[in-house]
Design a protein that fits this description.
Length: 217
């Protein structure tokens, strides 16, 4: 059975329709996403604060994963397909999204708050608005619960990403992370085990990182 074919301007050969999206080729035959304002799909972004109020004037960028080379081993880099600014309702529509099975990424920034990037699925199924909560950086107090079978290792630290920061764990298991994004992921690793907590914008509760029990021998 034959297949739909899409010509890639990055290579001299042809790639099938089924493989075009996986290889970073868009449906119009180019391996580059369309320029802002060109024909293509659209995503709606809602940028809000911790209380859910719209943020007016937030900058947003839409990015798509593309393959810069002819083989999958070179995958992937992010390329911008659109940018914009939120209106009075905190909403922005980004058009020109290429047809691809790869994920889309959306970056939002507001004033001097930490910028945030989220990932969304494909255009298939007419996706609804993508909500991006933002907030100012915060100090995070918490404690580590290693359990009865894991003594506190010397120099134990908790970490966050993105961006990457570290904080020492005190003898009582407490820690303080300063000036981290309010959606940061906090992790700890000890005794060949790990624990993580994903912060949420507006949630100021103490963070507890509890290691899972050791597996039975």
């Amino acid at each position: 059975m034959g297949s739909w074919r899409v010509r890639s301007t990055k290579t001299t050969g042809w790639c099938s329709f089924a493989l075009a999206a996986l290889a970073g080729c868009s449906i119009d035959g180019s391996s580059r996403p369309p320029k802002p304002g060109s024909a293509g799909g659209a995503f709606v972004l809602d940028v809000v604060d911790a209380q859910g109020a719209p943020l007016v004037g937030a900058d947003v960028v839409g990015l798509v994963e593309v393959n810069p080379g002819p083989v999958a081993s070179t995958c992937c880099t992010e390329r911008r397909f659109a940018s914009g600014t939120t209106g009075e309702d905190g909403r922005a529509t980004l058009t020109g999204a290429p047809f691809t099975f790869r994920p889309f990424h959306f970056r939002a920034s507001f004033r001097d708050w930490p910028p945030r990037e989220v990932m969304a699925g494909s255009l298939l199924g007419r996706p609804g608005a993508i909500r991006i909560p933002l907030g100012p950086p915060r100090d995070v107090r918490g404690r580590v619960d290693l359990g009865p079978d894991c003594p506190l290792p010397p120099g134990l630290e908790v970490s966050t990403w993105v961006p990457e920061t570290h904080a020492k764990v005190a003898a009582d298991g407490s820690f303080l992370l300063k000036h981290v994004p309010p959606w940061a992921t906090i992790t700890v690793h000890a005794c060949k085990r790990g624990a993580r907590v994903d912060l949420e914008v507006g949630d100021e509760r103490e963070v507890v990182l509890a290691l899972p029990p050791a597996e039975a021998p």
